Amino acid sequence: MSPTSLSPPKAIIFDWDNTLIDSWQVIHEAMNATFDEFGLPHWSLIETEQKVAKSMRDSFPKMFGEDWERAGTIFHGHFKAIHIERLSPYPGAGEALAQLVDAGIYLGVVSNKTGAFLRAEAENLGWDHHFGQIIGAGDAPRDKPAMDPVVMALQDSGIARGQDVWFAGDAAIDLECAKNSGCIPILVRPNAPKAQEFSDCQPALHFQTVQMLSNFTKTM
User: Fold this and answer.
1) Residue 134 · residue 128 · CB < 8 Å
2) For each successive 10 residues of the chain (220 residues), what is the average pLDDT?
3) Residue 184's beta-bridge partner residues?
4) What ranges do the domains of the chain cover?
5) Nearest residue to 108 via CA among 168, 193, 48
6) What is the pLDDT of residue 195?
7) Domains 3-22+89-217 and 24-82 in one fold
8) Single pTM value for the model
9) Looking at residue 172, what is its pLDDT?
10) 151, 140 contact by CB (below 8 A)
């Protein structure tokens, strides 16, 4: 899809972790603390970045088998202890969200972070009022990349899933969710996509930052 063929978005659904905030180190520490409880080897930070994408209920059973719920409780305990004090929003992200709302664009969040943690972070940052809905893992019948959380994120907005909705995130699972939802896939991360990196779902646009995305919408 050519950028020139895109219509201005009526809604933008954002991923949260590592799209709006830098959370890899917190996730990494909580994962390794969980591995310690099971006598498993640590992941490097790069491994964490490569392997963490799906929600807990979609990923932990494969990692911990029948003990996955206990592993989840351990992870949540470590994560809850540090995630608020270590919140690290990307520079300019809050301002960009405010600009998009001022432009009349409906905003939502769809994340595979547990919903209660997600909403606590948004409230702590003072960003919760920017979003019509903040949907995390476990809030919908199925988690991202299924379309279910996108349907929830758009409820009561009056905007239907489709080409008027952009889904903006930093990872393949976000682009896949956009595809499954019939929305426009937008990649937001510092590095441009590599050749064949997203062979199943190419991003329609790439922006290095959320601020650059916001600026682009002003030119449409």
Assistant:
1) yes
2) 77 98 96 97 96 95 96 96 96 98 98 97 98 97 97 96 96 96 97 87 95 96
3) 166
4) 3-22+89-217, 24-82
5) 168
6) 84
7) no
8) 0.93
9) 94
10) yes
CB-based contacts of 5-8 (< 8 A; 24+ apart in sequence): 6/163, 6/184, 6/204, 6/205, 6/220, 7/163, 7/164, 7/220, 8/217, 8/220
Residue 146 dihedral angles phi and psi, to the nearest 5°: -65, 160
**Residues pairing with 107 in the sheet:** 12
- Quick check: 110 and 101 in contact, CB under 8 A? no
CATH (residue range 3-22+89-217): 3.40.50.1000
- Specify the pLDDT at position 1: 52
Three-state DSSP class for residue 61: helix
Tallying the residues shown for the chain, one arrives at 220
Candidates 1.10.3470, 1.10.150, 3.30.1760, 1.10.4190; CATH matching 24-82: 1.10.150
Q: Do residues 203 and 192 make contact, with C-beta atoms less than 8 angstroms apart?
A: no
How do beta strands 184-188 and 133-137 pair? unpaired
* pLDDT score, position 3: 58
Q: Say what the pLDDT of residue 2 is.
A: 54
Q: What is the DSSP letter of 29?
A: H
- In a 3-state reduction of DSSP, which class is residue 216? helix
Q: Which residue is associated with the tokens 């490569």?
A: 50
By three-state DSSP, how is residue 203 classified? coil
